[in-house]
Amino acid sequence: MAQHFLLSAEARKLSLIKIAKMNDFQAIAAFRQVRWFETKGKPVCPCCGSSGKIYFITSRKQFKCKECASFFSVTSGTIFHGHKLPLQTILTAIAIFANAAKGISALQLSRDLDVQYKTAWVLLHKIRESLMDYDNSQPFQGVVEMDGVYVNGYIRPKNRLEKRIDRRKAYKPNKRVVISLRQRDQFGIGANRTRTFILRNENPIELSRIASRFIARDSEVHTDENIGYSNFIAHYNHRVVNHAVEYCGINGENNNQSESYNSRFRRLQYGQCHKLGTLYLSNYANEIAYREDTRRFDNGFIFRDILKKCLDSGISNEFCGYWQGNHRVAERLGI
C-alpha cells in the first residue's frame, strides 16, 4: 500500500523551530520576500507606489520613502497594520495555523505563543479573514457536490423527565447550516475548489439562488435526498444519493467530497473550538474550505500562501481596533 502524502517527507517543507529562532532582520527579510515578490524583495511605498529612493532606518526597523517622505513597515497597509506583536510571533502563528490540519483554538495558540487569549483570538481571525475570496466569481463546473452541516441549536435536556420537551420541534434561534459547494477534480483525486455559505436552513429558494449564481448551467450536481435541492433538475444534471440506503448510488452518484468537508468541520467544532458563535461562523467555515482545498500541498507552500494572502489583504475593517470597540455588527448569511 502506498504511503499517504501527509506522512511523506514531501509534505514537510516548513521548520517551526527555524521560524521561532529568527532575529528581527531575518523576519523582516521573510516579510519582504513575500510581500514584494514582484520586485524581488525591494520595498514599494504603499502611499505613493514608488520603489526608487527608499531607505531602511535600522533603529526604527522601518522604511522611509524619499518621494513622499512617508514612513512604512513591512506590515503597513496589510491586515497586520498597526500590530504590536514581534514579526517572529506573527510568522510562528501562521506556521502553527498552517500545520493544524483540523484548525486551532485561540486558547491553544495563546499558550503556544505566550500571549493573551484575546490577542490570539484576533490574530487567528485576521488570518481567517485573509483567506476569504470575495472577488472570484468563476462558476463551478463539471461535477459539483453540495451538502449542508448544521451547527448550534442544541438544547440541554431538563433533569426531570416531565419537564423535558421535544427538542426536534423547539425554536432554535441560533441554529445555522453551513452549505459547502465543492467542485470535483477532473483527474479523480477529490475536490479542488470549495465555497461555503451560511443559511438558517436548507430551503429551496436560497439553495437555488446559490446554484444559479455559482454553478454553470448543465453541470452535473450531486446532492443528498433533501427536498431543498429538488429544483436543481430544471437547470442541471441532478443526481441524488439516498443516505438512508447507501453512501454511493449504483451509477456513482454521491456527495462524499462535501461529506469530507462536513467531517473536517465537525473536528474543528468538537475537537478544537468546542463552540462556534453565529457572528463569525462564516470565517470558521471558510477556513475549513481552505484546508480542504490545500490538503495535498506541503506545509511550506501553505505557510507562504497564507502569509501572501495576509500581506495582500488590506487593513481589516472588523479586526483592526477590535478591542477598542470596532466589532462586526451582523452575521454573514446567504450569498
Descriptive report:
- The chain is an alpha/beta fold.
- The protein is 32% helix and 14% strand.
- The protein has helices at residues 16-20, 24-35, 87-99, 106-113, 117-130, 204-214, 256-273, 281-293, 299-312; strands spanning 54-57, 62-65, 71-72, 143-151, 176-184, 191-199, 220-224, 237-241.
- It has a 5-stranded mixed β-sheet with strand order 6-5-4-7-8, covered by helices on one side.
- The radius of gyration is 23 Å and the shape is globular.
SSE layout and pairing:
Elements: H1 16-20, H2 24-35, E1 54-57, E2 62-65, E3 71-72, H3 87-99, H4 106-113, H5 117-130, E4 143-151, E5 176-184, E6 191-199, H6 204-214, E7 220-224, E8 237-241, H7 256-273, H8 281-293, H9 299-312
Task: Give the spatial strand order of the biggest sheet.
Answer: 6-5-4-7-8
* Helix proportion range: 25-40%
CATH-defined fold name of the domain at 143-153 and 167-306: Nucleotidyltransferase, domain 5
Low-confidence stretches: none
Taking the alpha carbons of the first and last residues, their distance comes to 43 Å
Give the CATH H-level superfamily of the domain at 143-153 and 167-306: Ribonuclease H-like superfamily/Ribonuclease H
Taking the sheet with the most strands, its summary is: 5 strands, mixed
CATH architecture of the domain at 143-153 and 167-306: 2-Layer Sandwich
CATH first level of the domain at 143-153 and 167-306: which class?
A: Alpha Beta
